[in-house]
Design goal:
By secondary structure, this protein is of the alpha+beta class. The protein is built from twelve helices and ten strands. The longest helix is centred in the first third of the chain and has 25 residues. It holds the Pfam family SurA_N_3.
Length: about 350
């Protein structure tokens, strides 16, 4: 329900949030929240959507009262940047909207209705607030194009990579475990070593030997070898159709030679550090792949737009934050990023 009895206070909060949308220096292009190639998203456009969200959405009203409208601002910039990137990716792949299907969806309009103030998942609630505040046809078109991109690319895509991990098992040399922020820092540092010096990736081979030794020891102790998780591998070849979670991640959006870091799948607190060795975009022989659910298909399609961030020279106004290439969204700062992608030599615009 709408916040009642505090209209002046609420307007004051919104006005303050619009004037102080975040910390940091101003944009490289005056008046722009983001620049995508020859197109830009204006600060006024972002602020108008924030104002509309607070006017219409109970969850946004709650955030306004909590002085947390920066969350809405970042989500607005993220979705508008993705709109531009998805549109460009679809053009490159020859994917066009099915307007009859989109019109049929719009007739039922799944984006109507409020996001309640008591929604439990903040990230999802903020995303839903912005989706409902944007032009509904544009939002539904973005989703259609993302899923169509996945339909076209996922069946043929595969990637070969070497990887190790940080925080999953004790260090082979010291025997100590790294956890929490220290594990993330160690993973990022290791990725920078791999990117700067290809010889450093010999560490992955050593970790594969360590994995074999741990599994042999487990067997000798009467335990299953599989009780030791596969924390390292060389020459791992994965078709996107057989690994839907990875298909939505940076392994399938980054160029050959890149070093990638992201949270290790299904292991909270651990980090995946991998080097992409080969990509294939031709039909590959796989077992019957399970159908992707709508959310995974959308995410896999959005991932196809990842390379365009660098190709178009996207710039994000620092008042909103920086671009997280792993999460494909704007985050407050680099420390909040869910990972990193580095090109050979250690360079690369992984966040901006």
């Amino acid at each position: 329900m709408r916040i009642i009895g505090r209209p002046r206070a609420l307007v004051g909060v919104v006005a303050g949030a619009l004037l102080l949308a975040g910390c940091g220096s101003g944009p490289s292009q005056v008046g722009a929240a983001a620049v995508i190639g020859d197109r830009s998203i204006s600060i006024d456009q972002v602020q108008d959507l924030i104002t509309k969200a607070v006017r219409e959405q109970p969850y946004a009203q709650k955030l306004a009262a909590e002085h947390k409208l920066d969350l809405v601002g970042r989500a607005v910039v993220s979705q508008l940047v993705l709109h531009e990137l998805i549109t460009k990716a679809a053009e490159k792949q020859g994917v066009t909207p099915n307007y009859a299907q989109i019109d049929a969806q719009l007739a039922k309009d799944p984006l109507t209705g409020p996001v309640p103030a008591d929604a439990s998942n903040e990230t999802q609630a903020v995303s839903q607030v912005v989706a409902r505040t944007r032009d509904h046809r544009e939002e539904l078109t973005d989703t259609f194009l993302a899923q169509a991109l996945a339909d076209k690319t996922v069946p043929n895509a595969s990637v070969t990579f070497d990887y190790t991990s940080v925080g999953l098992v004790p260090d082979a040399t010291t025997g100590s475990s790294v956890e929490g922020p220290a594990a993330k820092t160690a993973a990022f540092d290791l990725a920078k070593q791999f990117a700067a010096d290809p010889a450093a990736t010999k560490r992955i081979g050593a970790d594969v030997q360590y994995l074999a030794a741990l599994r042999q020891r487990a067997t000798q102790m009467g335990q299953s070898a599989e009780s030791i998780p596969p924390f390292a591998s060389v020459g791992e070849a994965v078709p996107a159709a057989q690994a839907s979670a990875l298909a939505a991640g940076p392994l399938f959006g980054s160029p050959v030679g890149s070093t990638v870091v992201f949270p290790f799948p299904n292991n909270q607190g651990a980090w995946f550090v991998g080097v992409i060795r080969q990509r294939t975009d031709k039909p590959v022989a796989t077992e019957q792949a399970p159908d992707l659910d709508a959310a995974t298909k959308t995410a896999a399609g959005i991932r196809q737009a990842q390379p365009l961030f660098d190709e178009l020279g996207v710039r994000i106004n620092k008042r909103y934050g920086v671009w997280d290439v792993v999460a494909m969204t704007v985050v407050p700062n680099e420390d909040a990023a869910q990972g990193i992608v580095l090109s050979p030599g250690g360079s690369g615009r992984t966040q901006q």
